[in-house]
Amino acid sequence: MNKALRIIGMLLVALVVIAAAGVVYLRYTFPKVDAAPTITIKKTPELIERGAYLANHVAVCIDCHSTRDFSRFAGPVLPGTEGKGGDVFDHSMGFPGIFYARNITSDTKTGIGTWTDGEVYRAFTTGVSRNGDPLFPVMPYKSYASMTTNDAYAIVTYIRSLDPIRHQVPASKPDFPMNLILRTIPSGKPTPTDERTLEDELIRGKYLLTIAACAECHTPQEKGAPVEGKYLAGGFEFKFPNGAVLRSANITPDRQTGIGNWTEETFVQRFKSYGRPEATAKKLGPDDFNTIMPWAMYAGMEEADLKAIYKYLMSVEGNNNKVERFTPPTAVAGK
Fold first, then answer.
1. 303-313 residue pLDDT tens
2. What is the DSSP code string of 1-12?
3. Cα(211)–Cα(230) distance, rounded to whole angstroms?
4. Which of 309, 320, 312, 292 has its CA nearest to residue 234?
5. Residue 66: CB partners within 8 Å, gap ≥ 6?
6. What number is the average pLDDT over the span 237-258?
7. What is the DSSP code (8-state) at residue 103?
8. In the structure, how many helices (H) and strands (E) does the chain have?
9. 239 CB-contact burial (10 Å; exposed 0-12 / middle 13-18 / buried 19+)
């Protein structure tokens, strides 16, 4: 009996040692990304303007890194909070931990005012913070990795031009084992798109859709991976803190369940209609339909860019996938 207990004890010790070694290996070997590049970007007015356009209306960085008012439709950004961070993604929304969008203003105490251009560039194109810690991919850095070098630099320049806001954001706290898995997600280095290829409208449409991370939300996932054969077919679930469930729309050209019957003009005006303040001004009740899609921000996208995205969407394979867009909290509670 004593011999058996000793053997069991030795096995347990061995398992603890192996587990500890694994944790140490993950902690000090990953993420496997290149060092931040040594770059100094010339901050021209043209580059800042391009960055402002991308960060506010295409890649919508400002969407998560500001305060949004979800008592109104589509959660418009509260003026004066641009870049201050603090948006929370937690268990109530189905996340494996508590993740915060950090302060990306130029404040040197609570923001990224002391970061180099290369560190900012690496963060949103490879998913690694200044100190080497991995960032949770709610920020779609794998999509941002394909930005042209000029567009990525433009975003860096714009972000660094934001007025400093003193706002301390708590550190993110991933659950176990996500805190270990997270270290393996960032990898490699940016793979910039050749800007010359974007002269082709179809290619530009795919590029814009990619850096806008449309597929991240409009493709359903299982266990953190896109469902095969469901590209852009909708159905990805977003849980609101009040219990409501939003599901992304099918944006494939399927005529029954997607946008196959939409004309180019219909598509463009769907976005542009939210550019009017009254489109997001109404206060919503707890059971009213709401969305996390920042329509007011996307409304600022240039028509030529929206038309390019439409052309690309019409080129993908249609997918018959009917989506129940919204389940109010009272319906969820009644199940």
1. 999 999 999 99
2. -HHHHHHHHHHH
3. 19
4. 320
5. 77, 78, 81, 82, 83, 84, 85, 87
6. 93
7. P
8. 13, 10
9. middle
pLDDT digit string, tens, across residues 167-184:
999 999 999 999 999 999
Neighbours of 201 (CB within 10 A): 16
The residues near 138 (Cβ < 8 Å, ≥ 6 apart) are 64, 89, 95, 99
pTM: 0.89
207 or 9: whose pLDDT is higher?
Answer: 207
Is the CB of residue 296 less than 8 Å from the CB of residue 275? Answer: yes
**Could you please report the per-residue DSSP string of 188-240?**
E---PPPGGGGGSHHHHHHHHHHHTTHHHHHS-EETTEEPTT-TT----EEE-
| 12, pLDDT greater than 70 | no
Q: Are 112 and 120 spatial neighbours (Cβ–Cβ below 8 Å)?
A: yes
**Sheet with 326-327: strands ordered across:** 237-239, 245-247, 326-327
Polymer length of the chain = 335
Tell me phi and psi for residue 196, to 5 degrees: -65, -30
What is the sign of the dihedral through the CA atoms of 321, 322, 325 and 328? negative
